[in-house]
Amino acid sequence: MEGYLSSSIIGRAAESKKIKIKFYNPRDFTKDKWARVDRRPYGGGPGMVLEPEAILKAVQKAIGKKKAEIYFFDRSGPQFTNDTARTAVKKKTKDMVLICGHYEGIDARVQKILKAKKVSVGPYTLTGGELPALVVIDALSRQIQGVLGRFDSIEEERVSSSEVYTRPEVFVWKGKKYRVPKVLLSGNHAAIDDWKNAR
Q1: Helices 82-90 and 130-142 meet at what angle, rounded to 10?
Q2: Residues 95/51, Cβ–Cβ less than 8 Å
Q3: Tell me, what's the pLDDT at 66?
Q4: Nearest alpha-carbon partner for 50 in 92, 188, 59
Q5: d(CA 20, CA 75)
Q6: Cα–Cα nearest to 59, from 41, 74, 71, 73
Q7: Nearest to 10 by CA among 25, 26, 21, 24
Q8: Measured between alpha carbons, how far is 151 from 84 in angstroms, rounded to an integer?
Q9: Alpha carbon of 54 to those of 16, 155, 178: distances in Å?
Q10: pLDDT, tens digit, for every residue of 150-174?
């Protein structure tokens, strides 16, 4: 996770202080001498559940006295979209906490105590909350002025298509020629926009 966040566009955004990302490990906030934060679920069932105290203390450390938007990944929550990212970036609250679950999940009292907003990155279950957190961080970062080289590079804000081409004009692979569509070489911007919108 840290490797992805320290490289490419996200890494440069962090380096230039357009975004700031910190990690808080619940294992650093437990009283358990073996630093365990998972417990058996009440009512039975498979797997383990992350205890509330360690998670709450980690969030408390992350927030301090600041106001923050707190998100709790749950496949039953509303879908996180570009609109969600745009709205979050425009809010005055600059700090956001993303709670990443593991195992069978996090004790439900954490979400209730923190009034954390449930959010989903898709209708599927993952082994942990790290991948959803990366998705959210990436989507949010793109909405911050200066993170991308040009702000009109934001995909959803520009005329684009699912097909893009670059040099060479004719690409040969295993004896077969693959050409850039002629319209893209025409210089006719109206025709190019029509072609892109049709894709």
Answers
A1: 70
A2: no
A3: 87
A4: 59
A5: 26
A6: 71
A7: 21
A8: 18
A9: 32, 39, 56
A10: 655 555 555 456 788 889 999 999 9
Check if the beta carbon of residue 169 is closer than 8 Å to that of residue 185: yes
Residue 63, SS3 per DSSP: helix
Computed on alpha carbons and rounded to an integer, the radius of gyration of the chain in Å comes to 22
Compute φ and ψ for 46, nearest 5 degrees: -75, 160
CA distances from 187 to 184, 192, 193 (A): 7, 8, 11
* Amino acid 155: pLDDT: 54
Dihedral class, residue 126 (left if φ above 0, else alpha if ψ from -120 to 50, else beta): beta
Provide the 8-state DSSP code for 128. Answer: B
> Given this model, what pLDDT does residue 3 score?
77
18/12 Cα distance (integer angstroms): 9
Contacts of 77 (CB under 8 A, 6+ apart): 117, 118, 119, 120
Pinpoint the alpha helices (H) of the chain.
2-5, 8-15, 52-63, 82-90, 108-114, 130-142, 189-198
How far apart, in whole angstroms, are the C-alpha atoms of residue 138 and residue 5? Answer: 9
